[in-house]
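writing this on my phone so excuse typos. first protein, seq and then structure
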Amino acid sequence: MVDDGAGGRPLLLAAVLLGGAGIFDVLGGVGELTGDLYVSIEGGGMYHYDITGWAWLHLAAGALAAGAGVLVPLDRRWSARLALVAVAALVASHLLVLTYHPIQTVIVIGLALAAARLVLRHPRRSAS
């Protein structure tokens, strides 16, 4: 097999995408920790929603994704599995709050799924 020097480029791109999604999620989570309430008016009543708990969830999922993004270029099976777990955490946490932040959800899920595709399509080295 001829090595053209581009063997690690897909993993570096996956690391940048996953790290970027993680940092974007961490910044979004920190921005929501202010304690402001969302208000909706339905059926003659006003409802207050406190999403501080979701902000902590996004902060944790973003930190996991950023950490996994740093470890993906190691080209090990466990780093690929960690990256896929981080992608699953990002996607799940953003689908839960899709109605509150639709643009942020589309951006983070797009970056995370692109990184997952790159990680899954790259052949792994053995642990030895």
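second protein below, same order as before
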Amino acid sequence: MMRAVTKYSGLIIAMCLGIGAGLVSAMEGEASRKTRNVPVDIFADQARGPYRTGTFEVLWVNEALDDPSTTAVGDSRKVMVQLWYPASSSVQQDHAPYAISPQLYGESHWVHQLGGVRTRSVLNAPVVEGRERLPVLIYNHGAMHPHFSGTFQTEFLASHGYVVVAIGHPGANEIERFPDGKSYRNDGMTYWAEPPTGERPARRELAEYLWAHGDLSLFIGDIRFVLDRLAALDIDPEWRLRHRLALDRVGSLGWSLGGFLSLQAGRDEPRIKAVANLDGLNLLGLMGPRGVATLGSERPMLLMFADRWTEVSPPYPGVELSADIVERMELRAALVAHYWRMLRRSTADWYYMSIAGVDHAHFSDRTLFETIPEDRMSPRQAHDIINRFTLEFFEKYLRGSTQTPLLDGEEVFAEAGLFKMKGDAK
């Protein structure tokens, strides 16, 4: 069961985990973020695969679960789900809006500033012709972001022949109402863990407590529920993707919270065959007795980070550090050390990489909509690197491709450093 967090612990959480920009901004409130003037065709020049893409959004209700994030009795757990998929080559309709249902978010939410933005996918397009079963990818969003905040990647993967299913996890996605007219309010429940009453631990001690006691089970339950629903729909004669899902070839990926959630889901859910963590450096809930950081993974993993979060050394020689900075460096070193321990204990292939010149937001759509520092990588370049590695990883482990020049080191991006280990090498 998720637990409420006091004002004190919430502020400490934000500070002790401040090495992850997405978690800090989540505590500050994402809804009021201001975007720059964005061209309506911002996605038009994104690199794509051979298929046109379709998309649609749907509300799925888990009638078997009384949502523990609300105090209302009998309030079944609801999730917004958006699918992207290869579409028929004959489709000619207009492209879908970036946010299909902006009315589900508060009036001050940043999605309302992007009302004119169009994606490259066609709303409710027919699926691509043929009988080929298509691999399925579960996409998990970052904390306090909607399920479509990785559209740069979900559309790209769908254009290469995947059905990408993005899950909106209530309690972490800022949704305020559902299409059935019901409102949603998170009544103080969270996946953070409350430290023992009266204790005021230092950053490192608090972080270790949160890593061991955080609870991702509600969100993992969402993933299981969605996989169950997909299996039922795959034989439904009324469903547009009937008999087109390769549910024996399922992967999970995500950004920030969605990244480390995917790691744990790969440990807990046997239907998931490979996982990709996109700058989810946190370990919340991953270090308990059944956590993936404690036990290691039995699924192939791609871990992709912004270089500044994995850098342990001071950035400039001779700089005198304050006690506060030293404490942050200790916490950062602990994070990295725990990840390497997880990798050492993992039994499947893994890839660990960092990308120079990118920030946490580069792993989402945010850099397309906001001004970024001039010394940081352009969004298009960052998205190209992220997408190409992610696609090649899933092609290898869900489709059995042997054409993997990036993962094999035959093709190199100067900005990307990659370590890897084969499962049979341990």
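Confidence is low (pLDDT under 50) at residues 1-13, 15-29. thats all i got for now
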